[in-house]
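Batch manifest, entry 17 of 40.
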Amino acid sequence: MSQAETRGSALASNNFIRRLFLISVVMIVLGTAVQSFFALRIFESELDPAIEGKALAVGRVVAREVNRAVALDIPFGELRGMQEFLVAARADHPEISYIVVGDADGKPVYGSEAALDMAGRNGREFSVPLRLGEEASYGAVRIGIDERYVRGLLGDVAVDIVTVLLVTLLVTFEVLIILAALGIVLPIRAIESLMRDYEGGRFDRRSGMRGGNELARLGRRLDELGGRVATSYAALRADYDALYESLRNHPSWRAVEEAMRDVAGRFSLTRAEERKPLRIADFSHMRAPLVVFILSEELTRSFLPIFIRDFNDSLFGLSPGVVNSLPISFYMLMTAIATPFAGNIVDRIGARRIFLWGCIPGAVGMLGCAFAQGVLDLMLWRGLAAIGYAMSTIAAQAYLTNVAGTTRRVQAAAIYVGAVMLAAICGIAVGGIVAEQIGFRATFAVSGAVAALSALLAYLLLFDPPPDRNAPPVVRAKWRDYGVLLSRPLFGVLMLGVAVPAKIVLTGFLFYLVPLYLSSVGNSQSDIGRAMTAYFIVVAVGTKLVGQVADKYSDRRGFVLLGGLLSGLGPMLLLGYQGFLPVVLVAFAVGIGHALSTSPLVAMVTEVAARETPQVSTAAVLGIFRVLERVGSVLGPVMAAALATFYGYSVAMAGTGVAVLAGTLLFAVVFLLHRSGKGTPA
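Output type: C-alpha cells
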C-alpha cells in the first residue's frame, strides 16, 4: 500500500470516527434534554400536591390547638400567645409565607403584622375550618404559600438538571473516546502491527481478539493464517528432526541444513500454541481508571469543610476554626510526603501495581471518613486517602510517560491534566447534588465505592508496557537537590512569591472558605458545588489557550505577573460584596489568574534552574517544584481558618488574596532588579 493510500485510509477512518462522535453527542444531547424536560414537568406536577398537603397538615395542627383552647371555654377572641405560636408553627416551613387565624366572617384575628397584611393578597392560600364537634365553623386557619420560594425550588431543580446534563455530556464524551480507542483504534493498530509482523517474517505473536465484529473477525483470520504458518514450520521442523540421524551424512543434507538455517534466520517462528498475544499500550488504558479515581476525591470537595465543622471539636487548645482546617491541611501534607516515595518505587514495581495498591488506601480512607466521629480519626482517614491519592496519581503519570515514549510527552501531560480537570468539574458539581440528597456520610461511602471501581477498571485495562530502550533514564530528585535549589535566589522567589501563594489561595479560599461561607449565608450544597466548579472550568479552558499564546509571545514574566494580580485582587472584592454571585466571580478571577500563570511559571522554573543550578536535572527540578508548592496547600486552610476566627469570612478570603499580592510584588521587584542587572529568563 502506497503512502498516499495509507494517508487516505487514515483520513477516512478519522472522518468516520468524528462523524460517529458527532452523531452520538447529538443523540445524547437530544435524549437527555427531552428526559430532563419531562423530569422537570413531573416534578412540577408533583410539587403542588405536596405543598398543598403540607400546608393543610400545618393548618390542622394549628386548628387542633385552637379548638382545644376554645373547648376549655376560653373565648376565641381572647386567646393569648397566639402570635408566638403561629410564628413557631411556620418556623421550619419556608414555603409557607403566612399563617393567620380568622373569624367566621373571614376577618383575620391572629397573626403577625406582616402575616395579617399578606393574608388574602399573596397568591395561593389554603384554609382549615375551626369547629367544635358537629357545630358550625367559628373561624378558619389560613395558610399562604410563598410563590417565590416555590419558583426557587423549580429553578434549583432546573439548574440541577442542567448541571447533570452537562456532566453527562462530559462523561459520555470521555466514555466515547475511551470506547472508540479500545474498540476501534487499538484493534486497528493491533491488526496493522500484526500485518507488519507477517510482512517482516515474524509469526510468534497473535492478536487474540474476541467478539463478533468485523475487526475481531479480521484479527482472528490473521491469527489463523499465522497459526497455519507456525504449524507448517513445526511440521517441517519435526520432519527435519526425524530425518536428521539417517540423512545427516548424505551429500545433499548440507543444502537442507542451510535452508533450515535460512528459514530460522529470516523468520520468527514458534509453535502455534506458544504464540504470545499482541498487546499495545495506549493512553486510553489509563484514562478511565484515572478519571474515576480522581472523581472519588472530588465528590467530597464541596462539603468537606462543612462536614468537619459539624464535629465542633476542640484540640490542642486551638480555636475551633483552626481545628476544622487540620484534616484538609493534613491531607495536603501527607500527599506531599508520599509523592516522592511513590515516585521512587513505581519504577521498580511497575505503574499498574502501584496504581492498584493506591486504590486500596484511597477507598478505605473514604469509607473511614463516612464513620469518623471526631477530627482526630477523620485526620487519620484523610491521611490514608492522601497516601492512596499520591500513589495512584504518580503511577498514572508514570504509565502515561511510558506509553508516550520520547515522542509524545506533551500529549501524555495533556491527557493527565485533562483527566484531572474533567474529574474535578464533574465530581464537585455532582458531589454537591449527591450530598444534598443523601447526606455527607453517605457521599463519603459513595466516594469509597467509586475508588474501588477505579481499582476494578485498572485491573481489567492496565498492563505495564515494555520499557522504551531509547528513553533516557528516569532521574529522581535527591534530598540535597532541595537545598541546592532553595539556596538560589530566583528559584526561591518563584517558589515563595508565586507557587506557594497560588496554592494558599486555592486551598485556603476555594477549598476551605468558599464552602463554609456559602453555607453560612444559606446556599445549598448544589450551589456550593457549582460555585467551586467555576474555577476548574476556567482553568481547564484557559490553561491550554495560555500555553499556546505564551509560547508565541515569549513573555512568561508578564503572564505570571498578570495572573498573580488577578488571583490576588479577586478575593479582595469580597470585602465590599457578599453573596453567591460575588463568590462565583471571584472563583472565575482566581481561575483566570491560575490559567494565566501556571504554564508560564513551570517554564520559568525550568529555565531559572537551568541557569542557576545546571547540575540538577530538569526532571528533578520539576519534581522538587511539585513537592514544594504543596507547602502552600498545607498552609492555606490553616491561615484561612485563623483569619476567619478573628475577622470573619470576608476578611479571611481577602487575606488569601493579600498573600498572593505580596508574593506577586516580591516576584516583580526581584525579577525587575535582576533583569536590570544581569538579565533573566523571559
